[in-house]
Design brief:
The structure holds 2 protein chains of 2 kinds. Chain A is of the alpha/beta class. Chain A is built from 13 helices and 24 strands. The N terminus of chain A is likely disordered. Chain B has a domain of 307 residues. Chain B starts with a helix and ends in a 5-residue tail after the last strand. By secondary structure, chain B is α/β, with parallel strands linked by helices. The chains are: A alpha/beta, B alpha/beta.
């Protein structure tokens, strides 16, 4: 069965092309002037500049953490470009003004900003390198009072909302990479759903790193007011380059009383080649806070790309009866490394959390699930169910599970289950007997393994995720 | 978490004052271990293996070894013998062998001696210090440097020792802030079978420290049943390490029971270093008041076709704090590994706290490994059911707590020990709550 799959696996990373656009970049390196320069490029008000500088000064006092189960060479923070923007980008009135080259890029990626309008009915904000290149469906969303725009625009148009919520979930001092992001973040998406509004369509952001030697630091903030709900999708790709690029994003979600936020990610940054050269370091801080009663935050992620993935989308369950969910599929192949999982912090009464994590390791990849379930003393009636399963393909990969369960209330019910196994020979045999070839057999076994997570993805992503999974595992069976 | 230099210096000083005769045949080993301890210092909570357990109460006090065993009458010993006074037993008081309380039956192919006298004669003890890790583990280094006495048990090939060998470590220190450093070595040669029971008991309420290490070497096809019963008194600090190395087709059955001590930490580690080897690691902890109990287990699957089974259960009441960290490693060559691990915790009070971390690290693909952990309180539905059958609330709770514990105690194959521990659970669960540990 190995040869068929091998040829499949060695298929090129199909999003690895580079777009030739003139870029407006600032010089390499990081200091207070660079932070000010980024703020100046974006014409930011004084409070924002101060916040960035506060974060930068804090970052200087911090050291890069090395506790995750991943290894990589030192990162030179002075040899990186912190801002790169396609030159043609000006405040755009409509999509028609977007550089056609950029639109073609997104079309190549299957994210046609213009077509989306008619077909999918998904509002898209596309981030190209450091800046947002176009947001679709703005008007229609505006009718309902929903604000969906780039972060830069939000700072200009809705400073009160940004000031009220920025840093309330992930403070500027939260961790090394979050502090770096707070200092130099270039753009990102901002979404505000007013009281009682159910967002009528899926909101989506597509991130694309194009320029070389740049770091991408975007920041996303989603606020769901009382009784509102929103579903948000995020996709990412980058060109193939032999150097490593840092992606240190921050995502903050705020759910007030009875609000619900669903956040889905399909992460397919360039993973490096088979020998581990190049690829994105994906060091991301994602956290949601269920501030209000009966609120709900749900994370779904499909992680197939990046040389190193290191992120723990978390939920702080502060409001009584609030719910947190985490569904994850993480795939590593070749020399990819992933240390990912979640934190569920139960503070309010009768809070519930569910964690379903599926890790697939192939080639020489290493996949770790690291999760924390913490029940604080006053979290009466807290309930958690965790299931994390790992599948190993080949004998040079690794799967690791590090669950931390900390319970300080006797009425809590916390359950954790984990299993590790390989694809059963008998399962493959059975499929072959039914006329499927080995490759197809593996593909359906793997998608069965991941089913619980995929069924939580919005329709548009579920298909993409399935395909991605197939590609990531190509050639891994031998 | 800085720690006073003085605590480490104190033990270095104690080491320097050991007399030459006592250091005996292990002089070099002790010296090396002391250097390592001085380098490592006491672990802090920044150390991942000590994340939930602070050893500050140990590191901020200066404990001293007692020079000679406190003399005790045989009657004081009776209650700790599992009603089996005829077993071969070595009794150590304050860390030293008490020959008048011990009795060793001759058994062909079985050598049982005490470590102190073996070393005093300048003799070497083969394998001593080769299994437990004194290079990176501070307490093992401390024990190795200052080890006093303990049992050295060797069972020759294909010899089966039917009766359990009972090692009793009594702390009766005449002064507060005393310490003992028991050290045991159990070697089962090819095809040998034996049962070894270690009991740790405290007779006084003052604070004292026990740091013990037991090394176990199992030859091809050997089988050891190892039971550790920790019933230290309320003021005790207890840090124990059991480290095994297993050859082909050997089998280790380990049980760790912990109900005493103010702070206790037990490490049970094994290296499945031969194809077909297997281990069963079970344990139970039962704490209340302000007790802190910590278990760390490590099972390293190093060869193909190895099997491990692990169940740890905890009952926690009052303001007690339970910690469990179970590691299962599967090395790349350990194909066909089969591992199962579970940790279940029962909380009986609002203030009890549990931190559990079952951990799998797997580098081979053809494996079946699962782990699970639960934390919760008594099932309301089960309580209701029992009440509907005419039991009162207290009886129902008591019965359910007992059933929770019995589940794992059942696994103990030495009946007198199983009966005694079951009785101990019953005695401590009164009115549906855990009584304080009685000494």
């Amino acid at each position: 069965m190995s040869t068929a799959i091998e040829s499949l696996v060695n298929r090129e990373y199909q999003y690895g092309f580079v777009t030739e656009v003139e870029a407006d970049t600032i010089p390499r390196g990081l200091n207070e002037d660079v932070v000010r320069a980024i703020a100046a490029k974006k014409d930011e008000p004084e409070w924002m500049v101060e916040w960035r500088l506060k974060a930068y000064r804090r970052w200087l006092t911090m050291t890069e953490p090395h506790w995750p189960n991943v290894t990589y060479g030192p990162i030179d923070y002075q040899d990186m470009i912190y801002y790169s923007a396609p030159k043609s980008v000006k405040p755009l009135a409509s999509l028609d003004e977007v550089d056609p080259e950029l639109l073609r890029t997104y079309e190549k990626l299957g994210i046609s900003l213009t077509e989306q309008k008619f077909l999918a009915g998904v509002a898209v904000d596309a981030i190209f390198d450091s800046v947002s290149v176009g947001t679709t469906f703005k008007e229609e969303l505006g009718k309902q009072g929903i604000i969906f725009c780039s972060f830069g625009e939000a700072i200009q148009s809705h400073p009160d909302l940004v000031q009220k919520y920025l840093g309330t979930v992930v403070p500027h001092s939260d961790n090394f990479f979050a502090a770096l992001n707070a200092a130099v973040f270039s753009d990102g998406s901002f979404c505000y759903v007013p009281k009682g509004v159910k967002c009528p369509m899926e909101l989506s952001t597509y991130f694309r790193i194009n320029a070389a030697d740049t770091g991408q630091f975007e920041r996303t903030l989603i606020v769901a007011e009382e009784g509102s709900s929103v579903s948000y999708l995020e996709g990412c790709t980058a060109p193939k380059r032999s150097g490593n690029q840092l992606h240190a994003a921050v995502v903050e979600l705020v759910a007030l009383d009875n609000a619900s936020i669903k956040y889905s990610t399909v992460q397919n940054w360039y993973a490096g080649d088979a020998e581990g050269v190049g690829g994105i370091y994906n060091f991301v801080t994602k956290r949601g806070k269920c501030v209000g009663v009966n609120s709900k935050i749900s994370w779904t992620q499909v992680e197939t790309g990046s040389a190193i993935t290191w992120k723990y989308p978390s939920v702080i369950l502060q409001g009584d009866n609030s719910t947190g969910e985490f569904y994850s599929v993480a795939v590593v192949n070749n020399r990819q490394q992933a240390d990912t999982g979640t934190k569920m912090i139960h503070i309010g009464k009768n809070t519930k959390s569910t964690i379903i994590s599926k890790g697939i390791s192939a080639g020489r990849g290493n996949n770790s699930y690291r999760g924390q379930v913490k029940v604080m003393p006053r979290a009466t009636g807290a309930r958690n169910y965790t299931q994390c399963d790992s599948m190993l393909i080949g004998n040079e990969c690794g799967a690791h599970t590090f669950p931390y369960i900390e319970v300080q209330n006797d009425s809590a019910m916390v359950e954790h289950e984990a299993s590790t196994s390989k694809i059963g020979e008998d399962q493959i045999f059975y499929c072959k007997q039914r006329g499927l070839n080995a490759e197809h057999a593996i593909s359906i076994i793997v998608s069965g393994f991941c089913k619980e997570v995929f069924q939580n993805l919005p329709m548009e992503f579920a298909v993409e995720a399935q395909q991605l999974l197939g590609i990531s595992l190509e050639g891994s069976v031998g | 978490m800085t720690q006073p230099e003085t605590a480490v210096d104190h033990y270095v000083g104690m080491f320097e004052s050991l007399d030459h005769a006592e250091a005996g045949g292990a002089g070099e080993l002790r010296r090396r271990a002391m250097d390592r301890f001085a380098g490592l210092g006491f672990p802090t909570m920044k150390n991942e293996d000590w994340h939930y357990t602070s050893v500050a109460p140990i590191a901020t006090r200066s404990f001293n070894r007692t020079g000679s065993p406190t003399s005790l009458s045989a009657g004081e010993l009776d209650q700790y013998l599992f009603d089996s006074p005829d077993w071969t037993r070595l009794v150590f008081v304050d860390g030293w062998l008490a020959p008048e309380l011990s009795s060793v039956h001759d058994h062909p192919g079985v050598q049982i001696s005490d470590l102190s006298s073996m070393l005093r004669e300048g003799g070497k003890v083969p394998q001593l210090g080769t299994i437990a890790d004194h290079e990176t583990v501070a307490f093992t280094a401390l024990n190795t440097a200052l080890m006093q006495d303990g049992a050295v048990i060797t069972v020759a090939g294909n010899v089966e020792v039917a009766q359990p060998i009972h090692l009793v470590f009594l702390s009766a220190h005449p002064v507060p802030q005393a310490a003992s450093f028991p050290r045991n070595l159990v070697v089962l040669e090819k095809g040998a079978r034996a049962t070894v029971i270690e009991s740790y008991v405290g007779l006084r309420d003052e604070s004292y420290l026990t740091v013990s290490v037991t090394e176990i070497a199992l030859g091809e096809g050997a089988r050891l049943e190892h039971i550790k019963v920790q019933n230290e008194s309320a003021g005790a600090f207890h840090v124990a390490t059991i480290q095994a190395r297993q050859e082909r087709d050997s089998d280790l059955h380990s049980f760790s029971y912990a109900s005493g001590a103010e702070l206790s930490r037990t490490n049970v580690n094994t290296l499945l270093d031969g194809s077909g080897s297997s281990c069963t690691m079970n344990g139970m902890y039962m704490v209340s008041g302000s007790q802190h109990v910590d278990h760390q287990t490590s099972i390293e699957h190093a060869q193909p076709n190895t099997t491990s089974r692990e169940i740890y259960k905890g009952i926690l009441d009052g303001h007690s704090h339970g910690v469990f960290n179970g590691k299962v490693y599967v090395r790349p060559e350990a194909q066909k590994t089969d591992g199962k691990q579970s940790n279940n915790n029962l909380l009986l009070s609002d203030h009890a706290r549990v931190d559990t971390k079952p951990q799998l690290e797997i580098f081979a693909d053809d494996v079946k490994c699962t782990h699970g952990a639960t934390v919760g309180r008594l099932d309301e539905v089960a309580l209701f059911y029992m009440k509907s059958r005419g039991l009162d609330a207290e009886q129902a709770r008591t019965l359910l707590i007992y059933a929770f514990a019995a589940d794992v105690l059942e696994e103990i194959t030495v009946k007198p020990v199983k009966d005694a521990l079951e009785a101990a659970v019953f005695a401590r669960v009164r009115g549906g709550k855990l009584e304080m540990a009685s000494d």
